[in-house]
């Protein structure tokens, strides 16, 4: 299946990973281009690159990852021709049908080939998959894909209505998977195809409960046992890498430091405002400040300093110079002295809070549940060993012979 070489070659099928939700397949054809919202790429530039490479766009504004195809990636990137089976259902079916390397499997309803690719990888070169599709156009498209992916030795695809015409093999396969609108019509044909010398299994994929009920009745009538039905649902879990949570004490100390910083800036503004007001009241002659250049310069310095204090974010406050040669009222002098004496003490109190750089992983279960796709009905067919033919007993004939004598 697909290329096993290390480097990408012309004609290879690759998976282009754009984002987690945008994945598509691409056939490498030199001379063609690949365009997306993540940039422009030439197929010829991808030839020779190792699988898994991160490729930047020609204009340097985006990048893509070029991956080797796997059944899981193909399920996410394949062209949808019908409703497909996804990974959760595929894994569940493969496990309950006991499909393993060397198994012989029948699939009725090829569709887009999602389940076919996974089964072909599981059975390997020693096993085989017989796949049947009723729709001719879908069968032709799937056959082309199987050939391009190198699966012809493992998969035999047939255009056939198995509900009416049955399967092309009898007493051969280990398990049967029916993805049909009316699987109960193919149960008897599936029983003929299953081996009779060992325990075999069957699975029916039905989206409606009414289909399940009719299928269960047909399985009972055909002699199948251990009939069970499952519904596969997914509940995603979001895992994130976040910093270690700080203790309550660290958070409280950080809030206290922020509050002290705001108080310091407020006190600095008060001190600068009082300094500016005192400089205006110094003169007794009532002359405007502009007539005294030295006082105007001092007032401008105080105003500029006040403006700087409002925008300065340094932790160490810049206080105005001690007020000298200014006549203040006794009450004003006491206020300014209190501001100057209390501000340094507030700044110095409290050690700085150290933020840890460690990170931890947290998981959160998503509230929504993804599904429903379909119901899976399983059943088991036990081996049938007919009793050996008994020979007529001679003891039963003897009395009759004696009586004739």
Q: What keywords describe this structure?
A:
405 residues, alpha/beta, 7-stranded mixed beta sheet, 12 helices, disordered C terminus
Structural overview:
This protein is α/β, with parallel strands linked by helices and 405 residues long. Mean pLDDT is 81; it is low at 309-329, 342-349 and 394-405. It has twelve helices and 15 strands. Helix 2 runs antiparallel to helix 4 (114-123), helix 9 (248-281) runs antiparallel to helix 10 and helix 9 (248-281) runs antiparallel to helix 11 (330-348).
Provide a compact summary of the structure.
With 405 residues, the chain is of the alpha/beta class. It is built from twelve helices and 15 strands.
């Amino acid at each position: 299946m697909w290329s096993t070489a290390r480097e990408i070659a012309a004609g290879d099928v690759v998976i282009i990973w754009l984002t987690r939700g945008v994945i598509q397949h691409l056939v490498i054809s030199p001379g063609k281009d690949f365009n997306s919202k993540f940039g422009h790429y030439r197929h010829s530039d991808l030839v020779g690159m190792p699988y898994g490479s991160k490729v930047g766009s020609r204009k340097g504004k985006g990048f893509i990852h070029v991956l080797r195809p796997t059944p899981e990636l193909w399920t996410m990137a394949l062209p949808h021709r019908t409703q497909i089976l996804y990974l959760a259902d595929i894994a569940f079916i493969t496990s309950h049908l006991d499909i393993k390397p060397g198994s012989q499997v029948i699939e009725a309803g090829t569709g887009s080939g999602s389940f076919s690719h996974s089964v072909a990888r599981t059975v390997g070169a020693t096993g085989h998959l017989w796949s049947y599709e009723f729709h001719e156009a879908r069968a032709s498209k799937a056959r082309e894909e199987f050939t391009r992916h190198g699966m012809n030795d493992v998969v035999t695809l047939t255009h056939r209505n198995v509900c009416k015409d049955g399967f092309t093999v009898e007493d051969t396969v280990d398990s049967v998977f029916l993805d049909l609108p009316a699987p109960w019509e193919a149960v008897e044909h599936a029983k003929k195809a299953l081996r009779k010398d060992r325990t075999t299994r069957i699975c029916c994929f039905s989206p409606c409960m009414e289909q399940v009920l009719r299928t269960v009745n047909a399985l009972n009538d055909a002699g199948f046992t251990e009939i069970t039905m499952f519904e596969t649902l997914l509940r995603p879990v979001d895992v994130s890498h976040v910093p270690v949570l700080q203790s309550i004490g660290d958070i409280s100390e950080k809030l206290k430091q922020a509050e002290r910083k705001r108080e310091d800036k407020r006190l600095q503004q008060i001190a600068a405002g009082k300094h500016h007001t005192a400089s205006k009241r110094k003169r007794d002659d009532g002359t405007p400040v502009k007539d005294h250049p030295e006082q105007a310069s001092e007032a401008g310095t105080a105003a500029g300093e006040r403006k700087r204090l409002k925008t300065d974010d340094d932790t160490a406050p810049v206080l105005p110079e001690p007020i000298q040669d200014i006549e203040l009222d006794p009450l004003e002098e006491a206020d300014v002295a209190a501001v100057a004496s209390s501000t340094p003490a507030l700044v110095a109190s409290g050690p700085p809070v150290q933020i840890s750089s460690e990170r931890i992983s947290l998981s959160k279960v998503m509230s929504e549940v993804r599904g429903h796709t379909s119901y899976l009905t399983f059943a088991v067919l036990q081996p049938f060993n007919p009793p050996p033919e008994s020979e007529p007993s001679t003891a039963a004939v003897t009395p009759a012979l004696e009586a004739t004598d």
